[in-house]
Amino acid sequence: MEPRAIPVLDKGFVRLVDAMGDDRAIVQAARVSYGEGTKTVREDAALIDYLMRHRHTSPFEMVVFKFHVKAPIFVVRQWFRHRTASVNEISGRYSILKEEFYEPEAFRKQAKRNKQASEGALLDEEALALLRRVEQEAYGAYRALLEKGVAREMARMVLPLNLYTEFYWKQDLHNLFHFLKLRLAPEAQWEIRQYAQAIAEIVKERVPLAWAAFEEHLLGGALLSRTELRALRGLLTPEVYEKALASLGLEGSRLREALEKLFGPGEVP
């Protein structure tokens, strides 16, 4: 039975084809063990959290996902900027491409402060009608060129970027987390964020401990510059910061580590 496909956009999807490893594989690699590699779930969670926050990335590379994705070409061109995966896409040289185009419910306006972003809905029926007209004309030209005997590899030149394509994507968890951090970000294009959310749903189910650490330290965390750290040190004392951290549940060595991250080992009693 084929794995469940998660619908994305109007005609796209993401489905998990295969996966190797889970949270236990990360722990096993970190402990260099050929046995079960686990103690208790709590200890495993603590170890995975330690690996994530200290950027010990190689154990996460022991987990691999392979996805089957259907997405518009303009989304895929963004996706393939992540060059840390094995990819195989349907070929327009060998196959006649289907008449399937992404049609948004509404266009978005060009952002005023960001040249590469959009903001707000642009409700314009004429704009959507123009998109559909271009799709019909382009696909009609594509079919006409094929009927005239033009090679498939050349006839495809007339097709627009909202045509759907399909590909297989195989990537280890470390690099997949990097993809998700970038493509789940609010500033990422809305369409690719929908695919990132579908992938996140699959990853979270497969490696819940690693996902929790990823959310805590990478997805929800931030990297501070030297200047930003100096500013915070000027506003806080170790005692005030320790009290705030403790109120949020940090204790023991984890609490001390957080204090040393901001104030340095020599400044923490």
From TrEMBL:
So where does this one cross the membrane? none
Q: What is its EC number?
A: 2.1.1.148
Listed GO MF terms: flavin adenine dinucleotide binding; NADPH binding; thymidylate synthase (FAD) activity; thymidylate synthase activity
UniProt keyword annotation of Iron-sulfur present = no
The free-text cofactor remark is: Binds 4 FAD per tetramer. Each FAD binding site is formed by three monomers.
Catalysed reaction(s)?
dUMP + (6R)-5,10-methylene-5,6,7,8-tetrahydrofolate + NADPH + H(+) = dTMP + (6S)-5,6,7,8-tetrahydrofolate + NADP(+)
Q: Which pathway is this protein engaged in?
A: Pyrimidine metabolism; dTTP biosynthesis
Which CDD domains does the protein's record reference? ThyX
- Which positions in this protein are listed as binding FAD? 58, 81-83, 89, 172-174, 178
InterPro entries linked to this entry: Thymidylate_synthase_ThyX, Thymidylate_synthase_ThyX_sf
Cofactors per UniProt? FAD
What are the UniProt keywords, alphabetically?
A: FAD, Flavoprotein, Methyltransferase, NADP, Nucleotide biosynthesis, Transferase
A Pfam family recorded for this sequence? Thy1
Q: What is the enzyme's class at the highest EC level?
A: transferase
- Which residues carry out catalysis? 183
GO terms in the biological process aspect are: dTMP biosynthetic process; dTTP biosynthetic process; methylation
The UniProt record gives the binding positions of dUMP as 78-81, 89-93, 156, 183
Entry-linked PANTHER family: FLAVIN-DEPENDENT THYMIDYLATE SYNTHASE
Q: What function does the entry list?
A: Catalyzes the reductive methylation of 2'-deoxyuridine-5'-monophosphate (dUMP) to 2'-deoxythymidine-5'-monophosphate (dTMP) while utilizing 5,10-methylenetetrahydrofolate (mTHF) as the methyl donor, and NADPH and FADH(2) as the reductant.
Q: How does it assemble?
A: Homotetramer.
Q: Which family does it belong to?
A: Belongs to the thymidylate synthase ThyX family.
Q: What is this protein called?
A: Flavin-dependent thymidylate synthase
Provide the species name.
Answer: Thermus arciformis
Q: What is the lineage of its organism?
A: Bacteria, Thermotogati, Deinococcota, Deinococci, Thermales
